[in-house]
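Our consortium's second objective concerns turning raw sequence data into structural hypotheses that experimental partners can test. To show how far this objective has progressed, the report includes one record in full. It was chosen at random from the queue rather than selected for favorable results. The single chain below, 535 residues long, was entered without modification.
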Amino acid sequence: MLSVHVSTQLSSAPGPHDLLGQPAMTSLAVTNPGSLIQSVDWVAIAPPLIAALAALAVLVADLFLPAGRKKALGRLAAAGLALALIALLPLVHGHARSTFCLRNVTGATDNAACSYVADHFTLVFQLLALGGALITALLSIHTVDEEKLPGGEYWFLLLSSATGAALLPASRDLATLIIALEVVSLPAFALVGLRRDGRGAEAALKFFLSSVTATAVMLLGVSFVYAATGSLHLSVIADGLAHAPAQLKTLAEAGAALTLVGFAFKVAAVPFHFWLPDTYTGSPIPIAGYLSVVSKAAGLAGLALVTTIAFHTYAHTWGLALAVLAAVTMTVGNVAALRQRGDTPHSAVRLLAWSSIGQAGYLLVPLAAAGYAGATEPIGATVAYALIYGVVNLGAFAVVAVVARTAGSRLDDYRGLFARRRWTALALAFFLLCLAGLPPGVIGLLGKVVVFRAAIDAGLGWLAVVMAVNVVIALYYYLVWTAKLFAPAGADVAEVVEHRLPAPLTATLGLTALVAVVLSVAPELVLQVVGGSLF
């Protein structure tokens, strides 16, 4: 009979190092080498735990609240996400913390293999995941009412997916990574399908089938890696691959390649991007924004962890593969965005969808540079750009949600928006200039400079040239959309009656615009978040 005892005792003994090289604090109370008795660091796991508890609270509250008071579920979900964000504060200062660890593991850092590590890398991605989910929740409050979506199910699914997104960057073994990835994805399928029309069902089906296929391939790769190394912990896998017998090297290499497929799908890297445009246009607009930021950030975090820790032995190989993938992804995304016509239904959402694929290519550049450099320093550039992209892209989707309420979701529906909604038009113009990397969107320019430098420092000059060409291509469609905002309104748009915005929508627009402006005025805030070592 196996007896496992869990207590709340915390330990300050030094343990493994985090992804950025900082010493980690492990939470262990092991009485003998083979024992599974250990304490749990509740402070370290608090952010995803609070989000999960909030999801359960919403589900239970939905059973008892009368129909007239269901709107309170949205406020409860937003409060839960805000509380999860507050739970990050005790983890900001001091050493990284680890829990769910096994001692005396051969090949592990400091002889301990941990499944959950709350280090600097983890906290930044948890900030992005939970912050993005909170903005999505604020953006969704009016959508749930206006589109008559089932509130209890919607908020439960959103919180569940956010829980997986917060858990994934802290995961340090392949089993936990896969579980977290599926917790992000499975509720997202249902969220896309909650729209009660043909587009919602089609989008959910495409999303589901492509994701299941990618997951199956990834699980096959994980089984190969486990067969070659005998472990699922990332640090132990790294040691196992470095000392794998010659007869197992082919199996290990195949396993590493297949394992990356699932994360490439979540990032929407080409050729795993085909599901994304139709899924975005068929989803409720807040969910499209959520998928473009939070879901993408989760996949990016998993990809960074697996490549730089577990598959460090193959750094040069996956570095070249990611460099090619980044070049193809940004090119396909930006060229396809050029083809979006202003009079096509849902062209605004489709343009943002293709733009997010192009942005995914930029996000992959520092990961490729990390492979070439054989170090984790370039990862900071990915973290910085992900934070910047998350804020401005969610802001752009918030404006799309505002315009779609009265005018529509075509690009032509934005013609003359400045005359109808001055501050909304100015906010969208600022978001688009940030995405393009043009002043006054200084924070967007900073993000691109950081990514450029990571590529050049790693000796990837050709990739920097490809990125420069794509930035120029993207300038065209971002500036064309911006110009529409200040152009004279068309006859079909001039008669649109603009109503007062709901308070949650106003709060979302104000919050995202404020953060983007503050970061543009004080870009050093981003550098401090990612460790201050980008330049």
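The partners drew two points from this record. The longest strand covers residues 96-103. Residues 311-535 form one domain. Both points have been shared with the crystallography group to help prioritize constructs.
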